[in-house]
């Protein structure tokens, strides 16, 4: 009787470890079975491995790897469900859940007949929006005008400090 | 003045001596583990005493901790409009920190003290001397099964604590506070990685199990053979055990970043 209870306890503990490892921790036991696609971005904005890939808000896969490509752009490998038939003009964009939430990749389906195959690139991409840069552009745009270079943006904080000082 | 310095010196020597004794004791446990006979029956009996009997307290505490984490996390996150990240907050704090540490503290209080008291009573009633007279090594028969069972039990209990904590967090966050269920689960899964978080959590639990098992059995084994000695051994098991768990937790986190 006691052996039975101990056995149940050990099995329950093992089950909890397995649940944490495979389900929550995302340890894959068979290797990625889905469709691997690539996309290049100018700016990932801190996109992490295992970030979700969604279509219309429904999760269909995850980010496998983020590396620097040969053209010095971020090259993101994503793993999506095997059965998906994505047109070749599908576009990928990096967006954020909420204002401060995690980055994820949203796929917008195109209208072409041909579909993306294993290992192919998604050619239409939209980089992450960096909030700080957006604010910088806003300040920069109203202050100096659209013609200013990066130098103008760099001296911007000083100007605004001087303004507030006087 | 001289006396003060002498006191400090004596305390240091005592500390180092005790550390050395603990090391020799650990060596004896390892030796009796790898050398026959293998005491399977006793080991299973200890698994029952240390593991199964701690199960309810660990699960109930896990559930309560998960619920309060979720409630606190929600109230803070909702101010920044970031309640989608609730799953990540609850999951990361449970897996990386609270699961192993609180389980170890609970188990030290629940099972460690009982182990020390049991061995201490055996010392006080000269049962261990009786074993030695029959040329049975008390470390092999009494100490090793308890210490090993503690090491095995700790990661299992910690995993169960974390799972009940996640359930409690889900209950409060999703059912009570109305965070979207999909958001909760996906932020939980996206933020927790096996190698970074779960493996480290299990490693922590394993180290805490070794510490608790070693300290509890050693305190009991070396206790003064009278009733005051047994009570002192029990108390110091909980105190020294808890302190060394919390301190070693800092070092594991600093060294391996888990």
Quick structural overview:
In chain A, 31% of the residues lie in helices and 28% in strands. With 166 residues, chain A is of the alpha/beta class.
Plain-language structure description:
- The complex is a heterodimer of chains A (166) and B (258).
- By secondary structure, chain A is α/β, with parallel strands linked by helices.
- Chain A has 2 domains: 1-30; 32-145, no CATH class.
- Chain A has 3 helices and 8 strands, in the order αββββββββαα.
- Chain A has an 8-stranded mixed β-sheet with strand order 7-1-4-3-2-6-5-8, with no helix packed on it.
- In chain A, a hairpin with a 6-residue loop joins strand 5 and strand 6.
- The longest helix of chain A has 23 residues, at 2-24.
- Chain B has 258 residues and is an all-alpha fold.
- Chain B has one domain (39-256).
- Chain B is built from 8 helices and no strands.
- Chain B has helices spanning 2-34, 40-77, 86-124, 127-133, 138-176, 181-191, 194-221, 227-256.
- The radius of gyration of chain B is 21 Å and the shape is elongated.
- The mean pLDDT of chain B is 89.
- Chains A and B meet through helix 1 of A and helix 2, helix 3, helix 5, helix 6 and helix 7 of B.
């Amino acid at each position: 009787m006691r052996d039975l209870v101990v056995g149940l306890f050990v099995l329950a503990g093992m089950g909890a470890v397995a649940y944490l490892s495979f389900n929550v921790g995302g340890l894959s036991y068979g290797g990625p079975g889905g469709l691997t696609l690539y996309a290049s971005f100018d700016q990932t904005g801190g996109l992490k491995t295992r970030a979700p890939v969604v279509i219309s808000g429904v999760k269909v896969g995850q980010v496998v790897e983020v590396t620097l490509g040969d053209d010095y752009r971020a090259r993101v490998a994503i793993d999506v469900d095997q059965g998906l038939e994505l047109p070749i003009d599908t576009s990928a964009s990096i967006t954020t859940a909420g204002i401060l939430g995690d980055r994820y990749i949203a796929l917008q389906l195109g209208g072409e007949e041909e579909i993306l195959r294993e290992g192919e690139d998604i050619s239409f991409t939209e980089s992450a929006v960096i909030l700080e840069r957006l604010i910088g552009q806003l300040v920069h745009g109203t202050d100096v005008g659209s013609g200013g270079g990066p130098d103008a943006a760099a001296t911007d904080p000083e100007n605004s400090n001087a303004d507030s000082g006087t | 003045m001289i006396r003060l310095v002498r006191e400090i010196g004596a305390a240091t020597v005592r500390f180092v001596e005790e550390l050395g004794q603990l090391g020799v004791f650990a060596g004896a446990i390892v030796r009796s583990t790898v050398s026959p006979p293998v005491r399977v029956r006793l080991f299973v009996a200890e698994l029952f005493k240390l593991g199964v009997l701690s199960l309810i307290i660990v699960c109930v505490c896990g559930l309560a901790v998960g619920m309060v984490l979720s409630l606190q996390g929600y109230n803070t996150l909702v101010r920044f409009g970031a309640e989608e990240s609730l799953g990540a907050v609850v999951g990361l704090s449970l897996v990386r920190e609270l699961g192993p540490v609180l389980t170890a503290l609970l188990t030290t209080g629940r099972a460690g003290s009982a182990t020390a008291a049991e061995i201490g009573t055996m010392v006080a009633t000269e049962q261990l001397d009786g074993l030695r007279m029959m040329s049975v090594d008390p470390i092999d028969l009494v100490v090793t099964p308890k210490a090993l069972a503690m090491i095995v039990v700790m990661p299992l209990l910690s995993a169960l604590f974390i799972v009940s904590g996640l359930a409690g967090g889900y209950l409060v966050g999703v059912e009570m506070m109305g965070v979207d269920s999909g958001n909760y689960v996906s932020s939980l899964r996206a933020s927790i990685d096996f190698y970074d978080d779960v493996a480290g959590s299990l490693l922590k639990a394993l180290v805490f199990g070794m510490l608790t098992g070693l300290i509890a059995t050693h305190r009991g084994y070396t206790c003064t053979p009278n009733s005051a000695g047994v009570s002192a051994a029990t108390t110091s098991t909980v105190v020294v055990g808890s302190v060394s768990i919390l301190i070693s937790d800092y070092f594991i986190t600093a060294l391996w970043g888990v």
